[in-house]
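note to self — DONT lose this again. spent like an hour looking for the file last time. sequence + predicted structure for the chain T wanted, 591 res
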Amino acid sequence: MEIYFEEKIGNPDLFTGRYQEMKSLLKWVSMSKKRLARSTAILSRRKTGKTALMHRLFNIIFHQNDGVIPFYYEIKEFDQWILNFSEDFFFNFIWQYIAFKSRKSEFLETIIEDYDTLVDVAKRENLDFLIEHIEIIKKLIHNKKDYALWNKVRDFPKFIASKQNETIIQMIDEFQYLNYYIYRDEACSLRFSDLAGSYFHTAEYKTAPILISGSWVGWLMRDLSKMLPGRFRRDYFLGNMPDHEAAETIFKYSKILDIPITNDVVQLMVDVTGGNPCYISALFYSNYPEKNFSNEDGLRETLEFEVLNDGGEIKNRWMEYILYAFHTINGTDQGISKKIVLYLSQNNDREITRDEINKKLQLNLSDYDLEKRMTALVESDIINRGASNFDFKGIGDHIFDKVFRGVYQREIEEFDPKDVTNEYKELFKKWKEKFHEICGKYSSLKGRFAEYMIINHLEFRAYNYNDLFCAMMNNLPEKFSFVNYESVWKYTASPVLKKSFEIDVYAKAGKDKYSLIGEVKNRLSPFTLSEATAFIDKANELVQEEHVEKYLFFVYSIKGFTKDAILFLKENKIAWSDDEQWLDNTIPNKM
Protein backbone atom coordinates (compact mmCIF):
# COMPACT_ATOMS: atom_id res chain seq x y z
CA MET A 1 0.00 0.00 0.00
CA GLU A 2 1.26 3.47 -0.87
CA ILE A 3 2.15 5.83 1.98
CA TYR A 4 0.48 9.20 1.34
CA PHE A 5 0.78 10.85 4.76
CA GLU A 6 4.31 10.67 6.21
CA GLU A 7 4.36 8.38 9.23
CA LYS A 8 6.42 9.26 12.30
CA ILE A 9 7.54 5.67 12.63
CA GLY A 10 9.98 6.30 9.77
CA ASN A 11 10.51 3.18 7.68
CA PRO A 12 6.93 1.98 6.98
CA ASP A 13 8.10 -1.64 7.37
CA LEU A 14 8.61 -1.00 11.10
CA PHE A 15 4.84 -0.88 11.54
CA THR A 16 4.15 -4.32 13.00
CA GLY A 17 1.36 -6.02 14.89
CA ARG A 18 -1.70 -4.21 16.23
CA TYR A 19 -3.80 -6.46 13.98
CA GLN A 20 -6.78 -6.63 16.34
CA GLU A 21 -6.66 -2.88 17.07
CA MET A 22 -6.51 -2.05 13.37
CA LYS A 23 -9.31 -4.49 12.59
CA SER A 24 -11.46 -2.80 15.24
CA LEU A 25 -10.72 0.69 13.90
CA LEU A 26 -11.48 -0.34 10.32
CA LYS A 27 -14.82 -1.71 11.50
CA TRP A 28 -15.40 1.65 13.20
CA VAL A 29 -14.59 3.43 9.91
CA SER A 30 -16.99 1.12 8.06
CA MET A 31 -19.74 1.96 10.57
CA SER A 32 -19.08 5.67 10.01
CA LYS A 33 -20.27 5.34 6.41
CA LYS A 34 -23.69 4.39 7.81
CA ARG A 35 -23.57 7.26 10.34
CA LEU A 36 -23.31 4.74 13.21
CA ALA A 37 -19.79 5.34 14.56
CA ARG A 38 -19.43 6.97 18.00
CA SER A 39 -16.53 9.22 18.87
CA THR A 40 -13.80 7.12 20.49
CA ALA A 41 -10.77 7.64 22.74
CA ILE A 42 -7.55 5.61 22.62
CA LEU A 43 -5.69 5.78 25.93
CA SER A 44 -2.17 4.53 26.60
CA ARG A 45 1.22 5.84 27.66
CA ARG A 46 3.81 7.32 25.33
CA LYS A 47 5.50 5.23 22.64
CA THR A 48 2.97 2.41 22.61
CA GLY A 49 1.97 2.92 18.99
CA LYS A 50 -1.06 5.23 19.12
CA THR A 51 0.32 7.76 16.65
CA ALA A 52 1.65 5.03 14.34
CA LEU A 53 -1.80 3.42 14.37
CA MET A 54 -3.54 6.71 13.55
CA HIS A 55 -1.08 7.53 10.76
CA ARG A 56 -1.50 4.08 9.22
CA LEU A 57 -5.29 4.35 9.54
CA PHE A 58 -5.13 7.71 7.72
CA ASN A 59 -3.14 6.13 4.88
CA ILE A 60 -5.49 3.16 4.60
CA ILE A 61 -8.58 5.39 4.43
CA PHE A 62 -6.87 7.70 1.92
CA HIS A 63 -5.87 4.68 -0.19
CA GLN A 64 -9.33 3.10 -0.09
CA ASN A 65 -11.03 6.28 -1.35
CA ASP A 66 -14.31 4.65 -0.41
CA GLY A 67 -16.60 7.36 0.88
CA VAL A 68 -14.69 8.26 4.06
CA ILE A 69 -12.32 11.25 4.26
CA PRO A 70 -9.51 11.20 6.87
CA PHE A 71 -8.27 14.19 8.87
CA TYR A 72 -5.35 13.97 11.31
CA TYR A 73 -4.20 16.69 13.71
CA GLU A 74 -1.67 16.59 16.54
CA ILE A 75 -1.92 19.10 19.42
CA LYS A 76 1.65 20.24 20.02
CA GLU A 77 3.46 20.53 23.36
CA PHE A 78 4.04 24.31 23.46
CA ASP A 79 2.05 27.35 24.54
CA GLN A 80 -0.30 28.68 21.83
CA TRP A 81 -2.76 31.53 21.59
CA ILE A 82 -6.16 30.16 20.59
CA LEU A 83 -6.21 32.38 17.49
CA ASN A 84 -2.98 30.84 16.14
CA PHE A 85 -4.02 27.37 17.22
CA SER A 86 -7.39 27.67 15.46
CA GLU A 87 -5.78 28.92 12.26
CA ASP A 88 -3.28 26.04 12.27
CA PHE A 89 -6.13 23.55 12.84
CA PHE A 90 -8.03 25.02 9.90
CA PHE A 91 -5.08 25.00 7.48
CA ASN A 92 -4.29 21.37 8.31
CA PHE A 93 -7.88 20.30 7.76
CA ILE A 94 -8.47 22.23 4.53
CA TRP A 95 -5.26 21.05 2.85
CA GLN A 96 -5.88 17.43 3.84
CA TYR A 97 -9.45 17.70 2.54
CA ILE A 98 -8.26 19.15 -0.79
CA ALA A 99 -5.59 16.43 -1.06
CA PHE A 100 -8.22 13.72 -0.66
CA LYS A 101 -10.77 15.27 -3.02
CA SER A 102 -8.18 15.98 -5.71
CA ARG A 103 -6.29 12.68 -5.07
CA LYS A 104 -3.07 14.71 -4.98
CA SER A 105 -1.03 13.64 -1.97
CA GLU A 106 1.50 16.45 -2.51
CA PHE A 107 -0.97 18.76 -0.74
CA LEU A 108 -0.32 16.73 2.42
CA GLU A 109 3.41 17.37 2.38
CA THR A 110 3.57 21.13 2.93
CA ILE A 111 0.84 23.09 4.70
CA ILE A 112 0.93 26.55 3.06
CA GLU A 113 -0.54 29.12 5.46
CA ASP A 114 -1.64 31.58 2.79
CA TYR A 115 -5.32 32.27 2.07
CA ASP A 116 -4.85 33.51 -1.51
CA THR A 117 -2.94 30.34 -2.43
CA LEU A 118 -5.66 28.26 -0.79
CA VAL A 119 -8.38 30.01 -2.82
CA ASP A 120 -6.43 29.52 -6.07
CA VAL A 121 -5.97 25.80 -5.40
CA ALA A 122 -9.66 25.37 -4.47
CA LYS A 123 -10.65 26.96 -7.79
CA ARG A 124 -8.16 24.88 -9.77
CA GLU A 125 -9.40 21.63 -8.18
CA ASN A 126 -13.09 22.51 -8.75
CA LEU A 127 -13.78 22.87 -5.03
CA ASP A 128 -15.34 26.32 -5.29
CA PHE A 129 -17.75 25.65 -2.39
CA LEU A 130 -14.75 25.99 -0.04
CA ILE A 131 -13.93 29.56 -1.07
CA GLU A 132 -16.71 31.23 0.92
CA HIS A 133 -15.55 29.47 4.09
CA ILE A 134 -11.89 30.33 3.47
CA GLU A 135 -12.85 34.01 3.21
CA ILE A 136 -14.86 33.82 6.48
CA ILE A 137 -11.90 32.32 8.34
CA LYS A 138 -9.60 34.96 6.87
CA LYS A 139 -11.91 37.73 8.11
CA LEU A 140 -12.17 36.25 11.61
CA ILE A 141 -8.38 36.05 11.81
CA HIS A 142 -8.00 39.64 10.65
CA ASN A 143 -10.50 40.89 13.26
CA LYS A 144 -8.94 38.66 15.97
CA LYS A 145 -12.27 37.02 16.79
CA ASP A 146 -10.48 34.27 18.65
CA TYR A 147 -13.20 32.18 20.28
CA ALA A 148 -15.60 32.74 17.37
CA LEU A 149 -12.82 31.45 15.11
CA TRP A 150 -12.34 28.33 17.24
CA ASN A 151 -16.07 27.60 17.20
CA LYS A 152 -16.04 27.90 13.41
CA VAL A 153 -12.99 25.72 12.71
CA ARG A 154 -13.84 23.11 15.36
CA ASP A 155 -17.19 22.43 13.70
CA PHE A 156 -15.92 22.93 10.15
CA PRO A 157 -15.22 19.21 9.41
CA LYS A 158 -18.72 18.32 10.63
CA PHE A 159 -20.25 21.21 8.64
CA ILE A 160 -18.51 20.24 5.37
CA ALA A 161 -19.41 16.57 5.83
CA SER A 162 -23.07 17.44 6.31
CA LYS A 163 -23.26 19.91 3.40
CA GLN A 164 -21.44 17.58 0.98
CA ASN A 165 -23.17 14.42 2.22
CA GLU A 166 -19.82 12.92 3.16
CA THR A 167 -18.24 11.21 6.16
CA ILE A 168 -15.10 12.72 7.66
CA ILE A 169 -13.06 10.83 10.26
CA GLN A 170 -11.30 13.26 12.62
CA MET A 171 -8.17 11.97 14.39
CA ILE A 172 -6.90 14.31 17.12
CA ASP A 173 -3.64 13.17 18.69
CA GLU A 174 -2.62 14.12 22.28
CA PHE A 175 -6.07 15.53 23.02
CA GLN A 176 -5.24 16.15 26.71
CA TYR A 177 -2.98 19.07 25.71
CA LEU A 178 -6.06 21.02 24.58
CA ASN A 179 -6.65 22.18 28.16
CA TYR A 180 -2.99 22.74 28.93
CA TYR A 181 -1.19 24.46 26.06
CA ILE A 182 -3.92 26.71 24.59
CA TYR A 183 -4.33 30.25 25.98
CA ARG A 184 -7.04 32.91 25.79
CA ASP A 185 -4.59 35.78 25.23
CA GLU A 186 -1.72 36.42 22.82
CA ALA A 187 0.77 36.71 25.71
CA CYS A 188 -0.17 33.16 26.76
CA SER A 189 -0.83 34.11 30.37
CA LEU A 190 -4.48 32.98 30.68
CA ARG A 191 -4.77 29.25 30.11
CA PHE A 192 -7.94 27.93 28.42
CA SER A 193 -8.26 25.16 31.03
CA ASP A 194 -11.73 24.00 29.92
CA LEU A 195 -11.32 24.12 26.14
CA ALA A 196 -11.90 20.36 25.77
CA GLY A 197 -15.46 21.01 26.92
CA SER A 198 -16.12 22.86 23.66
CA TYR A 199 -16.33 19.41 22.01
CA PHE A 200 -19.36 18.49 24.16
CA HIS A 201 -21.80 18.74 21.23
CA THR A 202 -19.31 18.44 18.35
CA ALA A 203 -18.33 14.91 19.44
CA GLU A 204 -21.93 13.68 19.14
CA TYR A 205 -22.29 14.18 15.38
CA LYS A 206 -22.04 11.00 13.32
CA THR A 207 -21.12 12.78 10.06
CA ALA A 208 -17.65 13.54 11.45
CA PRO A 209 -16.92 11.17 14.37
CA ILE A 210 -13.75 11.87 16.33
CA LEU A 211 -10.93 9.50 17.29
CA ILE A 212 -8.81 11.07 20.03
CA SER A 213 -5.66 9.77 21.70
CA GLY A 214 -3.86 10.59 24.91
CA SER A 215 -0.44 9.63 26.29
CA TRP A 216 -1.35 10.80 29.80
CA VAL A 217 -4.09 8.29 30.52
CA GLY A 218 -5.21 9.55 33.94
CA TRP A 219 -5.09 13.15 32.78
CA LEU A 220 -7.22 12.49 29.69
CA MET A 221 -9.67 10.30 31.60
CA ARG A 222 -10.16 13.13 34.11
CA ASP A 223 -10.94 15.61 31.30
CA LEU A 224 -13.32 13.19 29.59
CA SER A 225 -15.14 12.46 32.85
CA LYS A 226 -15.46 16.10 33.95
CA MET A 227 -16.01 17.93 30.65
CA LEU A 228 -17.16 15.32 28.11
CA PRO A 229 -19.14 12.70 30.06
CA GLY A 230 -20.64 10.05 27.80
CA ARG A 231 -19.28 11.68 24.65
CA PHE A 232 -16.39 9.29 23.91
CA ARG A 233 -16.27 5.51 23.93
CA ARG A 234 -13.01 4.56 25.67
CA ASP A 235 -10.63 1.98 24.18
CA TYR A 236 -8.06 1.07 26.81
CA PHE A 237 -5.14 0.57 24.46
CA LEU A 238 -2.64 -0.51 27.10
CA GLY A 239 0.33 -1.03 24.84
CA ASN A 240 1.53 -4.61 25.16
CA MET A 241 1.41 -6.82 22.08
CA PRO A 242 0.73 -10.57 22.05
CA ASP A 243 3.89 -12.72 22.09
CA HIS A 244 3.78 -13.57 18.37
CA GLU A 245 3.42 -9.89 17.40
CA ALA A 246 6.24 -8.93 19.78
CA ALA A 247 8.50 -11.60 18.24
CA GLU A 248 7.67 -10.37 14.74
CA THR A 249 8.50 -6.80 15.81
CA ILE A 250 11.84 -7.89 17.29
CA PHE A 251 12.85 -9.77 14.16
CA LYS A 252 11.84 -6.80 12.03
CA TYR A 253 13.95 -4.35 14.08
CA SER A 254 16.85 -6.81 13.93
CA LYS A 255 16.64 -6.99 10.14
CA ILE A 256 16.05 -3.31 9.36
CA LEU A 257 18.66 -2.00 11.86
CA ASP A 258 21.09 -4.84 11.01
CA ILE A 259 21.50 -5.94 14.65
CA PRO A 260 21.88 -9.75 14.80
CA ILE A 261 19.81 -11.57 17.42
CA THR A 262 19.56 -15.23 18.38
CA ASN A 263 16.37 -17.20 18.87
CA ASP A 264 16.95 -17.54 22.63
CA VAL A 265 17.46 -13.80 23.02
CA VAL A 266 14.28 -13.11 21.02
CA GLN A 267 12.35 -15.26 23.48
CA LEU A 268 13.96 -13.46 26.43
CA MET A 269 13.25 -10.04 24.92
CA VAL A 270 9.57 -10.92 24.43
CA ASP A 271 9.31 -11.70 28.15
CA VAL A 272 11.52 -8.92 29.50
CA THR A 273 9.58 -6.27 27.55
CA GLY A 274 6.18 -7.87 28.04
CA GLY A 275 5.50 -7.08 24.37
CA ASN A 276 5.73 -3.32 25.01
CA PRO A 277 6.76 -1.71 21.69
CA CYS A 278 8.36 1.24 23.53
CA TYR A 279 10.75 -1.07 25.36
CA ILE A 280 11.55 -3.13 22.24
CA SER A 281 12.36 0.02 20.26
CA ALA A 282 14.46 1.47 23.10
CA LEU A 283 16.57 -1.67 23.37
CA PHE A 284 17.35 -1.71 19.64
CA TYR A 285 18.06 2.03 19.52
CA SER A 286 19.96 2.04 22.83
CA ASN A 287 23.19 4.02 23.03
CA TYR A 288 24.79 1.36 25.23
CA PRO A 289 28.33 1.02 23.75
CA GLU A 290 28.49 -2.78 24.22
CA LYS A 291 25.01 -3.52 22.86
CA ASN A 292 24.93 -7.16 21.77
CA PHE A 293 21.90 -9.39 21.29
CA SER A 294 23.79 -12.56 20.44
CA ASN A 295 23.66 -13.71 24.09
CA GLU A 296 21.54 -13.12 27.19
CA ASP A 297 24.24 -11.14 29.02
CA GLY A 298 24.27 -8.63 26.17
CA LEU A 299 20.49 -8.19 26.42
CA ARG A 300 20.58 -7.87 30.22
CA GLU A 301 23.42 -5.30 30.17
CA THR A 302 21.62 -3.23 27.53
CA LEU A 303 18.44 -3.34 29.59
CA GLU A 304 20.31 -2.28 32.75
CA PHE A 305 21.83 0.65 30.86
CA GLU A 306 18.38 1.72 29.68
CA VAL A 307 16.93 1.42 33.18
CA LEU A 308 19.71 2.90 35.35
CA ASN A 309 21.74 5.23 33.11
CA ASP A 310 20.76 8.86 32.51
CA GLY A 311 21.26 8.25 28.78
CA GLY A 312 18.71 5.45 28.74
CA GLU A 313 15.59 6.17 26.70
CA ILE A 314 13.47 3.94 28.94
CA LYS A 315 14.61 5.78 32.07
CA ASN A 316 14.03 9.20 30.51
CA ARG A 317 10.57 8.20 29.30
CA TRP A 318 9.46 7.09 32.76
CA MET A 319 11.07 10.12 34.42
CA GLU A 320 8.70 12.36 32.39
CA TYR A 321 5.76 10.74 34.16
CA ILE A 322 7.44 10.62 37.57
CA LEU A 323 8.57 14.26 37.54
CA TYR A 324 5.18 15.43 36.31
CA ALA A 325 3.53 13.50 39.15
CA PHE A 326 5.66 15.12 41.84
CA HIS A 327 5.37 18.55 40.18
CA THR A 328 1.56 18.42 40.37
CA ILE A 329 1.58 17.71 44.12
CA ASN A 330 1.87 21.40 44.91
CA GLY A 331 3.71 22.52 48.02
CA THR A 332 3.55 19.14 49.78
CA ASP A 333 6.30 16.83 50.93
CA GLN A 334 7.31 14.89 47.80
CA GLY A 335 9.12 12.38 50.00
CA ILE A 336 5.75 11.06 51.15
CA SER A 337 4.65 10.48 47.54
CA LYS A 338 7.91 8.69 46.76
CA LYS A 339 7.38 6.37 49.73
CA ILE A 340 3.83 5.63 48.53
CA VAL A 341 4.95 4.77 44.98
CA LEU A 342 7.80 2.59 46.31
CA TYR A 343 5.45 0.75 48.70
CA LEU A 344 2.89 0.05 45.96
CA SER A 345 5.65 -1.02 43.59
CA GLN A 346 7.06 -3.46 46.15
CA ASN A 347 3.57 -4.91 46.70
CA ASN A 348 2.21 -4.74 43.16
CA ASP A 349 0.72 -8.24 43.37
CA ARG A 350 -2.28 -6.93 45.33
CA GLU A 351 -4.57 -3.95 45.83
CA ILE A 352 -3.87 -1.78 48.86
CA THR A 353 -6.27 0.42 50.81
CA ARG A 354 -5.68 4.05 51.77
CA ASP A 355 -5.86 2.96 55.40
CA GLU A 356 -3.00 0.48 54.95
CA ILE A 357 -0.88 3.10 53.15
CA ASN A 358 -1.46 5.60 55.96
CA LYS A 359 -0.63 3.13 58.74
CA LYS A 360 2.27 1.20 57.16
CA LEU A 361 4.08 4.36 56.10
CA GLN A 362 3.08 6.27 59.25
CA LEU A 363 1.86 9.24 57.20
CA ASN A 364 -0.78 10.58 59.62
CA LEU A 365 -2.67 12.23 56.74
CA SER A 366 -6.40 12.93 56.69
CA ASP A 367 -8.48 10.90 54.21
CA TYR A 368 -8.97 14.07 52.15
CA ASP A 369 -5.25 14.91 51.95
CA LEU A 370 -4.25 11.31 51.18
CA GLU A 371 -6.95 10.94 48.52
CA LYS A 372 -5.81 14.20 46.87
CA ARG A 373 -2.23 12.91 46.76
CA MET A 374 -3.27 9.47 45.48
CA THR A 375 -5.46 11.02 42.75
CA ALA A 376 -2.50 13.10 41.53
CA LEU A 377 -0.36 9.95 41.31
CA VAL A 378 -3.10 8.05 39.45
CA GLU A 379 -3.62 10.91 36.96
CA SER A 380 0.15 10.94 36.36
CA ASP A 381 0.04 7.25 35.36
CA ILE A 382 2.56 5.97 37.92
CA ILE A 383 0.03 4.10 40.11
CA ASN A 384 -3.37 2.57 39.34
CA ARG A 385 -6.72 2.59 41.09
CA GLY A 386 -8.03 -0.79 42.17
CA ALA A 387 -11.50 -2.21 41.68
CA SER A 388 -12.72 0.21 44.32
CA ASN A 389 -12.00 3.94 44.41
CA PHE A 390 -10.54 3.37 47.89
CA ASP A 391 -7.93 0.82 46.74
CA PHE A 392 -4.69 1.37 44.82
CA LYS A 393 -2.09 -0.76 43.10
CA GLY A 394 1.37 -0.46 41.57
CA ILE A 395 1.41 -0.47 37.77
CA GLY A 396 2.85 -4.00 37.70
CA ASP A 397 5.77 -3.19 35.40
CA HIS A 398 9.13 -4.51 36.56
CA ILE A 399 10.96 -2.02 34.32
CA PHE A 400 9.19 0.97 35.89
CA ASP A 401 9.97 -0.57 39.29
CA LYS A 402 13.71 -0.67 38.50
CA VAL A 403 13.72 2.88 37.09
CA PHE A 404 11.97 4.30 40.14
CA ARG A 405 14.14 2.44 42.63
CA GLY A 406 17.30 3.39 40.75
CA VAL A 407 16.45 7.08 41.13
CA TYR A 408 14.70 7.30 44.50
CA GLN A 409 15.16 4.20 46.63
CA ARG A 410 18.56 5.28 47.93
CA GLU A 411 17.03 8.44 49.45
CA ILE A 412 14.15 6.40 50.91
CA GLU A 413 16.02 3.31 52.13
CA GLU A 414 19.21 1.39 51.45
CA PHE A 415 19.62 0.46 47.78
CA ASP A 416 22.49 -1.06 45.80
CA PRO A 417 22.22 -0.80 41.98
CA LYS A 418 23.79 -4.27 41.84
CA ASP A 419 20.43 -5.53 43.15
CA VAL A 420 18.96 -4.78 39.70
CA THR A 421 21.60 -6.96 38.01
CA ASN A 422 20.98 -9.83 40.41
CA GLU A 423 17.20 -9.52 40.05
CA TYR A 424 17.39 -9.59 36.26
CA LYS A 425 19.69 -12.62 36.35
CA GLU A 426 17.11 -14.41 38.48
CA LEU A 427 14.23 -13.31 36.20
CA PHE A 428 16.13 -14.49 33.10
CA LYS A 429 16.69 -17.87 34.77
CA LYS A 430 12.96 -18.24 35.51
CA TRP A 431 11.95 -17.21 31.98
CA LYS A 432 14.39 -19.70 30.43
CA GLU A 433 12.93 -22.48 32.59
CA LYS A 434 9.46 -21.44 31.49
CA PHE A 435 10.39 -21.86 27.80
CA HIS A 436 10.68 -25.61 28.31
CA GLU A 437 7.29 -25.76 30.05
CA ILE A 438 5.29 -23.78 27.49
CA CYS A 439 5.88 -25.78 24.33
CA GLY A 440 3.28 -23.98 22.26
CA LYS A 441 4.92 -20.60 22.81
CA TYR A 442 8.37 -22.03 22.21
CA SER A 443 7.30 -23.63 18.92
CA SER A 444 5.66 -20.42 17.78
CA LEU A 445 8.84 -18.43 18.32
CA LYS A 446 10.88 -21.19 16.65
CA GLY A 447 8.71 -20.67 13.58
CA ARG A 448 9.34 -16.92 13.66
CA PHE A 449 13.07 -17.55 13.97
CA ALA A 450 13.02 -19.85 10.92
CA GLU A 451 11.25 -17.14 8.90
CA TYR A 452 13.79 -14.59 10.10
CA MET A 453 16.79 -16.78 9.11
CA ILE A 454 15.41 -17.59 5.64
CA ILE A 455 14.59 -13.94 5.00
CA ASN A 456 18.11 -12.91 6.00
CA HIS A 457 19.71 -15.57 3.82
CA LEU A 458 17.66 -14.44 0.80
CA GLU A 459 18.47 -10.79 1.42
CA PHE A 460 22.18 -11.02 2.27
CA ARG A 461 23.65 -14.41 1.27
CA ALA A 462 21.78 -16.49 -1.33
CA TYR A 463 22.82 -14.21 -4.19
CA ASN A 464 26.51 -14.49 -3.21
CA TYR A 465 26.34 -18.26 -2.62
CA ASN A 466 23.99 -19.19 -5.46
CA ASP A 467 25.29 -22.75 -6.00
CA LEU A 468 25.12 -23.57 -2.28
CA PHE A 469 21.57 -22.29 -1.82
CA CYS A 470 20.32 -23.82 -5.08
CA ALA A 471 21.66 -27.18 -3.85
CA MET A 472 19.53 -26.75 -0.70
CA MET A 473 16.30 -26.60 -2.79
CA ASN A 474 14.30 -29.19 -4.74
CA ASN A 475 12.20 -28.71 -7.87
CA LEU A 476 13.79 -25.44 -8.98
CA PRO A 477 13.10 -24.26 -12.56
CA GLU A 478 15.85 -24.80 -15.12
CA LYS A 479 18.56 -22.11 -15.04
CA PHE A 480 17.09 -20.65 -11.83
CA SER A 481 19.35 -18.42 -9.77
CA PHE A 482 18.93 -16.30 -6.65
CA VAL A 483 19.19 -12.56 -7.23
CA ASN A 484 19.77 -9.34 -5.32
CA TYR A 485 16.14 -8.82 -4.27
CA GLU A 486 14.53 -5.39 -4.05
CA SER A 487 12.91 -6.30 -0.71
CA VAL A 488 12.48 -9.40 1.40
CA TRP A 489 10.01 -9.69 4.26
CA LYS A 490 6.96 -11.41 5.70
CA TYR A 491 3.92 -10.34 3.68
CA THR A 492 0.70 -9.35 5.44
CA ALA A 493 -2.23 -8.55 3.18
CA SER A 494 -3.22 -4.90 3.43
CA PRO A 495 -6.18 -4.19 5.73
CA VAL A 496 -7.65 -2.57 2.62
CA LEU A 497 -8.51 -6.09 1.44
CA LYS A 498 -11.63 -7.78 2.79
CA LYS A 499 -9.82 -11.13 3.12
CA SER A 500 -6.71 -11.09 5.32
CA PHE A 501 -3.81 -13.51 4.90
CA GLU A 502 -0.08 -13.79 5.57
CA ILE A 503 2.80 -15.11 3.51
CA ASP A 504 5.87 -16.07 5.53
CA VAL A 505 8.40 -14.91 2.92
CA TYR A 506 8.02 -12.58 -0.06
CA ALA A 507 11.25 -11.74 -1.90
CA LYS A 508 10.49 -9.17 -4.59
CA ALA A 509 12.77 -9.33 -7.63
CA GLY A 510 13.32 -6.97 -10.53
CA LYS A 511 11.86 -7.31 -14.00
CA ASP A 512 12.24 -10.74 -15.67
CA LYS A 513 13.61 -12.27 -12.43
CA TYR A 514 11.91 -14.78 -10.17
CA SER A 515 10.23 -13.28 -7.12
CA LEU A 516 10.00 -15.84 -4.30
CA ILE A 517 6.82 -16.53 -2.33
CA GLY A 518 7.34 -18.98 0.50
CA GLU A 519 5.79 -20.90 3.40
CA VAL A 520 7.97 -21.81 6.43
CA LYS A 521 7.29 -24.58 8.97
CA ASN A 522 9.67 -25.21 11.89
CA ARG A 523 7.85 -27.83 13.97
CA LEU A 524 7.81 -31.54 14.84
CA SER A 525 5.48 -32.81 12.06
CA PRO A 526 5.81 -32.99 8.24
CA PHE A 527 4.18 -30.55 5.83
CA THR A 528 0.85 -31.96 4.58
CA LEU A 529 -1.19 -31.90 1.38
CA SER A 530 -3.94 -29.77 2.95
CA GLU A 531 -1.32 -27.20 3.99
CA ALA A 532 0.10 -27.21 0.46
CA THR A 533 -3.31 -26.49 -1.11
CA ALA A 534 -4.00 -23.73 1.41
CA PHE A 535 -0.60 -22.18 0.71
CA ILE A 536 -1.00 -22.12 -3.08
CA ASP A 537 -4.38 -20.38 -2.74
CA LYS A 538 -3.06 -17.49 -0.65
CA ALA A 539 0.18 -17.32 -2.69
CA ASN A 540 -1.92 -16.83 -5.83
CA GLU A 541 -3.79 -14.03 -4.04
CA LEU A 542 -0.48 -12.28 -3.37
CA VAL A 543 0.46 -12.64 -7.05
CA GLN A 544 -2.82 -11.03 -8.05
CA GLU A 545 -2.73 -8.28 -5.44
CA GLU A 546 0.91 -7.29 -6.08
CA HIS A 547 0.79 -7.89 -9.88
CA VAL A 548 3.79 -10.25 -9.75
CA GLU A 549 4.66 -11.31 -13.30
CA LYS A 550 7.41 -13.89 -12.72
CA TYR A 551 7.50 -15.89 -9.50
CA LEU A 552 8.41 -19.14 -7.80
CA PHE A 553 6.47 -20.65 -4.89
CA PHE A 554 8.50 -22.57 -2.30
CA VAL A 555 7.98 -24.36 1.01
CA TYR A 556 10.50 -24.94 3.79
CA SER A 557 9.68 -27.63 6.40
CA ILE A 558 12.32 -28.70 8.91
CA LYS A 559 10.56 -32.08 9.42
CA GLY A 560 10.04 -32.82 5.76
CA PHE A 561 6.87 -33.52 3.78
CA THR A 562 4.20 -36.17 3.44
CA LYS A 563 4.30 -38.20 0.19
CA ASP A 564 1.09 -36.70 -1.20
CA ALA A 565 2.37 -33.22 -0.38
CA ILE A 566 5.56 -33.91 -2.39
CA LEU A 567 3.47 -35.10 -5.37
CA PHE A 568 1.35 -31.94 -5.18
CA LEU A 569 4.43 -29.70 -5.03
CA LYS A 570 5.94 -31.44 -8.06
CA GLU A 571 2.73 -31.20 -10.10
CA ASN A 572 2.33 -27.50 -9.30
CA LYS A 573 6.01 -26.60 -9.89
CA ILE A 574 6.52 -25.54 -6.27
CA ALA A 575 10.06 -25.75 -4.87
CA TRP A 576 10.69 -27.29 -1.44
CA SER A 577 13.43 -27.84 1.11
CA ASP A 578 14.06 -29.44 4.51
CA ASP A 579 17.77 -28.59 4.57
CA GLU A 580 18.86 -27.36 8.03
CA GLN A 581 21.48 -25.09 6.46
CA TRP A 582 18.66 -22.60 5.89
CA LEU A 583 18.71 -22.08 9.68
CA ASP A 584 22.50 -21.75 9.91
CA ASN A 585 23.45 -18.25 11.04
CA THR A 586 27.21 -18.83 10.65
CA ILE A 587 27.27 -18.34 6.88
CA PRO A 588 28.97 -14.96 6.24
CA ASN A 589 27.17 -12.25 4.27
CA LYS A 590 29.75 -12.20 1.46
CA MET A 591 32.33 -14.54 -0.03
